[in-house]
Amino acid sequence: MPLALLALAVVAFGIGTTEFVTMGLLPQIADGVGVSVPHAGNLVSAYALGVVVGAPLLTGMGARVPHKRLLLILSGVFVVGNTASALAPNFALLFAARVLAGLPHGALFGVGAVVAAKLVAPDRAARAVSTMFLGLTVANIVGVPVGTALGQQLGWRYAFAAVSAIGVAALVALVLLIPHQPRGAQSGVMHELRAMKNKQVMLGLVTAVVGFGGYFAVYSYLVPMLTHLTGISDASTTLVLALFGVGMTVGTLVAGPLTDRALRPTLYAGFALLAASLVALYFTIGQLVPALVVITIVGALSSLITTPVQMLLMTKAHEAPTMAAASNHSAFNLANAGGAWLGGLVIAAGWGWSSPALVGAALAVVGLGLAVTGGYLDRDGRGSKVVTTSGTVREPYETDEGSATAGSACKPGAH
């Protein structure tokens, strides 16, 4: 794997840290800007709003910009948004700053995934993309706990300032390590939007919203589930969340090679096993050791399906994959909102703190059904075309499940 993927992983690390560190600092932020903790919780929604809006908007605006330059611009917006978050004097400006910080999130992951796939041979494309995603999972193990501790000890502003410093480090790494990748003559927002009309792309995005909604239905309430049912202390939940992040990292490492070998079977197995593990969590959440084992497995399976979904969208949007890859992260945030809402509904209805696990399992099963439907529609056996260099299209190799996997003819380090 080329060293350039390290730069993309640093970007993903910064994004993962800033997305989740706010949740652990809500009491401190609420005190700092003079609002209630529930009101401060709207800052999480503000970031998600920025992601949902920014992914298609910024990707479209940068459709003719060379990928390296676009990555630098988006990373600059990321730094500005987090710096503004650290300096915001009141809640209104902090809310606006969190929206700004979220705007480049989806576009950075989308452009980064396309760049990563172009850095390697076609049969290693998924591994390259999953390497970038490792930065996100490591953020859950290191970035979020360290950022939360920093914010609790020195003040919440220091946490956002630290994220800005990570963004600056990412900018330097991108400048030094990412090769120039020109856009072709056909590039442009209309070219990207035409690729989004593919029914498999739209079905893939719906699959992401529903299927990942199952994961977020549980993750959103994991801390109260643990404290109310498992009996662990509030202080110990940080270690449990780090354990969840370890599972995510393992799942990401496994997802790359499996997706390169068999994209759709990996996706099917991921959703099926995620549903089964969430059912298991429902029955084991009251027992500490079994619950910790299952929580780690749930973390691994949630990441196992991330890479194949991303690669499926890039493959089916073949001639213009950037918009589809970025929109996937809008879908993730819609899944976050929808899953959390459904999980909250069943708790409020009196079904108990463990009930979100069953909601999550049901959503994962529906996600599996949507994924299988997409596979059935692909039974005509026609492979998708994949952009290898900007403006150049080639027929991809076939995986053993009969569909194409996105990739690139560019060699590692090629300019």
From TrEMBL:
Record key words, sorted: Cell membrane, Membrane, Transmembrane, Transmembrane helix
Broad class of the protein's primary localization: membrane
Membrane disposition: Multi-pass membrane protein
Name listed for the protein in its UniProt record: MFS transporter
Region: Disordered, residue numbers: 385-415
Highest taxon in the source lineage: Bacteria
Entry's transmembrane regions: 42-63, 70-97, 103-121, 133-152, 158-180, 201-223, 235-255, 267-285, 291-313, 334-351, 357-377
Residue ranges of domain Major facilitator superfamily (MFS) profile in the record: 2-379
InterPro entries: MFS, MFS_dom, MFS_Efflux_Transporters, MFS_trans_sf
SUPFAM superfamilies according to UniProt: MFS general substrate transporter
One family name in Pfam for this protein: MFS_1
UniProt-annotated location(s): Cell membrane
